[in-house]
Each structure stands twice: as structure tokens, then as C-alpha cells.
From TrEMBL:
Its main location: mitochondrion. This is Enoyl-CoA delta isomerase 1, mitochondrial. The lineage of its organism: Eukaryota, Metazoa, Ecdysozoa, Arthropoda, Hexapoda. SUPFAM superfamilies: ClpP/crotonase. Homotrimer. It comes from the Eukaryota. It holds the Pfam family ECH_1. It comes from Sipha flava (yellow sugarcane aphid). One of its GO terms (molecular function) is delta(3)-delta(2)-enoyl-CoA isomerase activity.
Length: 275
């Protein structure tokens, strides 16, 4: 792991930590203690086993370093994240599929439970797993108006697992989540703002980063202990369900994803993407 100091947009030095050929770049503003984690896996930030593992490792490091907040964003031009890497579960190797799903569970738990406040800077399309990661942050700022966000699993002929669903319910409520999930709807920035899936829509990424910093700076005046306890209590039932049902969730997903019917749907969906 290498470290270097670079000059940030507001002329303060930021501590930049990066690994060679890393898919995740992190900078920490020395003055505010706020980290920016940038996902950088071309072409679409699809979440495969190695990428998830890197994100989880980075989040754990930030916790150890006691950062004051974190913004999650993308280094790609028009995509926040295309969600889970479909090639991990189309014609999968069963052992790798198990490892992939366990890593997803752990990465999500780490992100959803961070002891520091988080903001998603959604600077591109954010379907499915990309939307899950954005919803798992404490606050969402999306660059409009061109991009879309949502849990579109039914469009792939698959079903969002219970903890994806519960995460969405926590953000937009039962009724809107049910409609969104069953129809697999991808929302435009304006629509997402209207239903509360995002908190702010802004015209460009610099404004999004400024607003993200503003949101996270609110917590300078809040006791970290009070923040963490409140977040734990608020998110407890969703988190506890997964902790108690990790193996059941894994077994179900691995079996279900390998069924002939699901594999057929995924094959057709992948083909449509290639076109
Ligand atoms: C009791 C009942 C309980 C039931 C429980 C069931 C539980 C089991 C179910 C398991 C659930 C699994 C959950 C999955 C969640 C997911 O995240 S699935 C992934 C969903 N993602 C998408 O649908 C996004 C698809 N991609 C796009 O829409 C577009 O690519 C884009 C808008 C992101 C970008 O568009 P564009 O810039 O035009 O790029 P493209 O040319 O489309 O793509 C470039 C390149 O990338 C490949 N690609 C795109 N997305 C993915 C992906 N998610 N995974 C892998 N690969 C992807 C695309 O095919 C192109 O490849 P080529 O360059 O053509 O080779």
C-alpha cells in the first residue's frame, strides 16, 4: 500500500492511500477527516468477488483509522455501479459463487453498519447492487438528470433477497418499495428524489461532493457514540436478520441461482446487454 499527499479542490492537503492496480481509491481530507472512496473498475463497476473484497477491506481500514465520515463515489464517466457482476452467477463455479455471495453479505454488513456517517455520491447509473450500496449509505446525492437508479432484479428474472428489500423499505417505505421491486423500476433522478430514494439531486459531481461534505460535517457536532448507537438501533432488525440467516440466505441463493429457469433468464439478459 502506498501513501501520498495531494492537494484537494479546496486547497487542503489530503492523504491519499492507494494500492497499485487497485480498483478502489481512497483519499482522506486531513482537516475534516472525511474520506472519499472511489470505485474504479472499468467498464461499469460491476461488483465481483475481488472488487467486493477490496471495498470491504477499505471500509475496515477507514474504521480502524477513525475517519469522521465517508463519501462513496465512482471514478467512471456515467456509471456509479452496474450492480452485482452477472458473470459471477451466470454458468457459475459453485465454490466461487458461495464465496462471492458470502463476501457480498459481509461487505454489505460492513457498509450498512459503519461507525462513521456515509454519503453516496451517485454520479452515474445505479441499478440493483449499485442501488443497494447507495441505499446503505446514510445520505444520497445524485447527479441529474440523465442517470437512473433502482432495484431492477425482476427484470432479470430474479428476486431481490430479503435484506435488499428491507434496505429499500427502510429508505422509501413498504408501499413504494413493493411497487418499485415488483416492477423492477429504474427511476430517473427527478423520480428518485420525488419518492425519497435519493435526498438531493445536483447538476454536477463537484456540487455533489460539496453537498456530501456539508452533510457529513453536520456530525462534527454529534457525539460519535450517540451517532453509532442511534444508527445501530435504527438498522438493527435488517442487520440482525442477515446475521441470523447468513447460511440460509447463502444456501437459498446458491441453489436458486443455479436453477435452469434462472440461468435461462440470465443468459437472455446478458445477451440483451451485449446488444
Ligand atoms: C422466498 C423467496 C426468496 C427469494 C430470494 C431469491 C434470492 C436469489 C436471487 C439472487 C439475487 C441476485 C441479485 C442481484 C442484484 C444485481 O445487482 S444483478 C445486476 C443487475 N445489473 C443490471 O441489470 C445492470 C445491467 N447493465 C446496464 O444496464 C448497463 O450496462 C449500464 C447502464 C450499467 C451501463 O450501460 P453502458 O454504458 O451502455 O455499458 P454497456 O455497453 O451496457 O456495458 C458495458 C459492458 O459491461 C457489461 N455489463 C454491464 N453490466 C454488467 C453487470 N451487472 N455484470 C456484468 N457485466 C455487465 C456489458 O455486458 C458490456 O459488456 P461487453 O463490453 O459487451 O462485453
Amino acid at each position: 500500500m502506498l501513501r501520498r499527499l495531494i492537494l484537494s479542490r479546496n486547497n487542503t492537503f489530503i492523504n491519499c492511500r492507494y494500492a497499485s492496480q487497485s480498483m478502489v481509491q481512497t483519499t482522506v481530507d486531513e482537516k475534516s477527516g472525511i474520506a472519499t472512496v472511489t470505485m474504479n473498475k472499468s467498464p461499469v463497476n460491476s461488483l465481483n468477488l475481488e472488487f467486493l473484497d477490496e471495498i470491504k477491506t477499505e471500509l475496515n481500514k477507514l474504521e480502524k483509522d477513525k475517519v469522521k465520515g465517508m463519501m462513496l463515489t465512482s471514478g467512471l464517466q456515467k456509471i456509479f455501479s452496474a450492480g452485482l457482476d452477472i458473470t459471477e452467477f451466470y454458468n457459475p463455479n459453485p465454490d466461487r459463487l458461495s464465496k462471492f455471495w458470502s463476501t457480498l453479505q459481509d461487505t454489505w454488513l460492513t457498509l450498512y453498519k459503519t461507525p462513521f456517517p456515509t454519503a453516496a455520491i451517485i454520479n452515474g447509473h445505479s441499478p440493483a447492487g449499485g442501488c443497494l450500496f447507495a441505499m446503505s449509505c446514510d445520505y444520497r446525492i445524485m447527479v441529474g438528470p440523465k442517470y437512473t437508479i433502482g432495484l431492477n432484479e425482476t427484470k432479470l428474472g430474479i428476486v431481490a433477497p430479503k435484506w435488499f428489500i428491507d434496505t429499500m423499505v427502510a429508505v422509501i417505505g413498504q408501499r413504494k418499495a413493493e411497487i418499485s421491486l415488483t416492477t423492477g423500476k429504474m427511476y430517473t433522478t427527478d423520480e428518485a428524489l420525488h419518492i425519497g430514494l435519493i435526498d438531493e439531486s445536483v447538476p454536477d459531481v463537484n456540487t455533489a461532493l460539496t453537498q456530501g461534505n456539508l452533510f457529513l460535517n453536520n456530525f462534527q457536532r454529534i457525539s460519535p457514540w450517540a451517532y453509532k448507537m442511534t444508527k445501530d438501533i435504527t438498522r438493527q432488525s435488517t442487520v440482525q436478520w442477515l446475521i441470523d440467516n447468513k447460511q440460509k440466505d447463502l444456501d437459498f441463493v446458491v441453489t436458486y441461482l443455479q436453477s435452469a429457469e434462472v440461468q435461462k433468464s440470465l443468459g437472455l439478459y446478458l445477451q440483451s446487454l451485449k446488444k
